[in-house]
Amino acid sequence: MNDQSLQAPAWYLQGAPHVWRPYCQMKTAPAPLAVEATSGARIILEDGRGLIDGIASWWTACHGYNHPHIAKAVSDQLARAPHVMFGGLAHAPAYTLASRLAALLPGDLDHVFFAESGSVAVEIAMKMALQHWINRGVAGRTRFLGFLGGYHGDTLATMTVCDPEEGMHSLFAGVMPAQVMAALPVDGPTEAALDALLSERGHEIAAMIVEPRVQGAGGMLFHDDEVLRRLRRMADAHGVLLIFDEIFTGFGRTGDLFACQGAGVTPDIITLSKALTGGTLPLSAAIANHRVFDAFWSDDAGAALMHGPTYMANPLACAAANASLDLFESGAWKENVARVGARLASGLEPCRAVPGVVDVRVRGAIGVVEFEEAVDVGGLCARFVEAGVWIRPMGCVVYLTPAFTIDDADLDHLTGAMRKVLNA
Ligand SMILES: Cc1ncc(COP(=O)(O)O)c(C=O)c1O
């Protein structure tokens, strides 16, 4: 509790001793801000202040908050059937969504398994990969290859494929079986090193997993599409499955609907979440190609994928996702991402001159100012709030990933606040 909480509403004061907050040392962290509502690109606080949201609620609200088309689809579905179990029952929102995703994704990524969070989708993708080998009668492919800078979630198995230092999970070293870690093949030497590693240990590896184009939570690190083409070539050469985790990059964030499609590389399994429902409801999917799915298609009941989260394919969430896809179908997002990207680039460029800044970069609707050292997240957040914006830095990076629909004035306010607070 601090001074802010003195004016806090009753629900806040009653709940604060009981809520365990994400990613913070609660004893010393600043108190969270009480939110009353959201609208467009804004978060409205209980005290009446409106903050322009620079990160679209952890990269989810790509069409802005409270989009009427999504809201109507969810409320219509709420009246019809908020939820039914997915075991033995089928419903239009999920079946429609599965067929639409299969049509949008490249290649033969046709088999959609729904879950509720990104981490769980990655867990399922890992389990699919492992069992694909078991079902095919191939022994020994029990490890995963993850990449430095990668982040794939906070659950126990996903922690093992995160960057061992940057992935926030270094405390747990040794708890779970160690996976194989490598640098991304960004140039000749790193490509040769990965190839050598795969020659030596490829037979142990079920799949390699990567965030294509942008490693998000690991520091908004960008790589070229050629890296993904190399990974595809090496995965094929060494018989390893390739998983693209597009939980952050999917749905337009890097300028293409999916990063894999833009790069012209089709993985064997892709994971999606975050902007899947336009930032309204929790939903995720692990989507496999025919090669993976066919290993499960059998007269043997034991070859089935034994997985089924209680709320998988929740009809409300699927209705929201279908409505979000309608908005993507209009095509306006692409121009908006280009517009946002261009304005982020010009608005953030002056930050290059700030002492301690080592890079300023933009890809799609992602703008990044990287510092040499980790920044003071709490202190910067407070100053951003004073400047009327919601920006939450991560490690060494202060970044913007706004809604694609944000208008130019709000975008300029965001980049202006970055320049002001960072003293550019
Ligand atoms: C690439 C990637 N994978 C997985 C996750 C985990 O998703 P969730 O937080 O929904 O479990 C995230 C979350 O930031 C992510 O960026």
Features:
single chain, 424 residues, alpha/beta, Aspartate Aminotransferase, domain 1, Aspartate Aminotransferase, domain 2, 2 domains, seven-stranded mixed beta sheet, four-stranded mixed beta sheet, 15 helices, binds pyridoxal-5'-phosphate
Please provide a written account of the structure.
By secondary structure, the chain is of the alpha/beta class. It folds into two domains: 33-66 and 331-362 and 373-390, Aspartate Aminotransferase, domain 1 (Alpha-Beta Complex); 68-329, Aspartate Aminotransferase, domain 2 (3-Layer(aba) Sandwich), CATH 3.40.640.10. Helix content is 37%, strand content 16%. The chain contains 15 helices and 16 strands. Strand 13 (357-363) and strand 14 form a beta hairpin. The protein is globular and about 60 Å long. The site of pyridoxal-5'-phosphate has 14 residues, from helix 6.
Summary of the model, kept short:
The chain has 424 residues and is of the alpha/beta class.
Note the topology.
Blueprint: H1 3-6, H2 10-15, E1 35-39, E2 42-45, E3 50-53, H3 56-59, H4 68-80, H5 92-104, E4 111-115, H6 118-135, E5 143-147, H7 156-160, E6 180-182, H8 188-201, E7 205-210, E8 214-215, E9 221-222, H9 225-237, E10 241-245, H10 259-263, E11 269-272, E12 284-288, H11 290-294, H12 315-329, H13 332-348, E13 357-363, E14 366-371, H14 377-386, E15 389-390, E16 397-400, H15 408-421
Parallel strand pairs: 3-15, 5-6, 5-7, 7-10, 10-11
Antiparallel strand pairs: 1-2, 2-3, 4-12, 8-9, 11-12, 13-14, 14-16
Helix pairs in contact: 4-12, 5-12, 13-15
The structure holds pyridoxal-5'-phosphate.
Pyridoxal-5'-phosphate (PLP) binds near residues 118, 151, 152, 247 and 273.
